[in-house]
Amino acid sequence: MTQADRKKRSTRMSKMVTPPAVTRMKAVLQKEMVREFLAEFLSTFVMMVFGLGAIAHMVLGDKMGSYLGVNLGFGFGVTMGVHMAGNISGAHMNAALTFTNCALGRMSWKKFPVYVLGQFLGSFLAAATIYCLFYTAIIDYSGGRLTVTGPTATANIFATYLPDHMTLWRGFLDELCLLAITDKGNNPALQGTQALVIGILVVIIGASMGMNSGYAINPSRDLPPRFFTSLLAGAHRSSAPRTVVGASGGPPLGAYLGAIIYLIFIGSSIQQEPQILENSLDV
């Protein structure tokens, strides 16, 4: 093909008309709420695939996984989610955080169902993905009988079926520390390191209090996978209502209380021009 032919072909391609369906799709995807929905969906999916995959290794892997691996899976899953959607939706990946932001007036309540729907769909799809990836191992481990409790229980790969008395306080610590990490008027994480610091926070919360209730600090993490397991034919049907209420009600209340405590105790006492640490050396 000569250079003249290439130029003619390039000119013809540049004059191609974009199909109306593609144009409409681009217009829809540029809408703010649509972009935020997709950001929450994808970031939650990534977080949950890493986290649930780590749990599957711990439960099914016979020494190939550990509880530390679960903490790291969820922690760095959150880090990847924040990098992916932080500048679009804020990368909540947690209905409790979305509820708190709406309750404090930091975002419109109109966005609440959009964010939560994106989170729930991403979490549900992640549970289905992990089930497909580990299907053979799950069947071998359980003997084909999927149960919630017992020596071969597999429901705990997807959701938390433990005591719910700590879910409120863990949500409290989650929001309290998140505000400190992101508060520009205080001593926030350095620009570009917030995602890593937030991931480390998730690791610490799991490592310090995971014995009580696993990672039941996030309704978006717990409820959709729990619903997914209930859809499996004849499997995982003994989900206790008390654990559902604890996983869905405790974290939002705890997160809201944590935000209020931070704003009252710390936010209201921050000076407009705080003293720089190095100034103490000049005294």
TrEMBL record:
<dbReference type="GO" id="GO:0015254">
    <property type="term" value="F:glycerol channel activity"/>
</dbReference>
<keyword id="KW-0812">Transmembrane</keyword>
<dbReference type="InterPro" id="IPR023271">
    <property type="entry name" value="Aquaporin-like"/>
</dbReference>
<feature type="transmembrane region" description="Helical">
    <location>
        <begin position="114"/>
        <end position="138"/>
    </location>
</feature>
<protein>
    <submittedName>
        <fullName>Aquaporin-7 isoform X3</fullName>
    </submittedName>
</protein>
<dbReference type="GO" id="GO:0016323">
    <property type="term" value="C:basolateral plasma membrane"/>
</dbReference>
<dbReference type="GO" id="GO:0015250">
    <property type="term" value="F:water channel activity"/>
</dbReference>
<dbReference type="Pfam" id="PF00230">
    <property type="entry name" value="MIP"/>
</dbReference>
<keyword id="KW-1133">Transmembrane helix</keyword>
<dbReference type="InterPro" id="IPR000425">
    <property type="entry name" value="MIP"/>
</dbReference>
<feature type="transmembrane region" description="Helical">
    <location>
        <begin position="37"/>
        <end position="60"/>
    </location>
</feature>
<keyword id="KW-0813">Transport</keyword>
<feature type="transmembrane region" description="Helical">
    <location>
        <begin position="195"/>
        <end position="217"/>
    </location>
</feature>
<comment type="similarity">
    <text>Belongs to the MIP/aquaporin (TC 1.A.8) family.</text>
</comment>
<dbReference type="GO" id="GO:0015204">
    <property type="term" value="F:urea transmembrane transporter activity"/>
</dbReference>
<dbReference type="InterPro" id="IPR050363">
    <property type="entry name" value="MIP/Aquaporin"/>
</dbReference>
<keyword id="KW-0472">Membrane</keyword>
<feature type="transmembrane region" description="Helical">
    <location>
        <begin position="66"/>
        <end position="85"/>
    </location>
</feature>
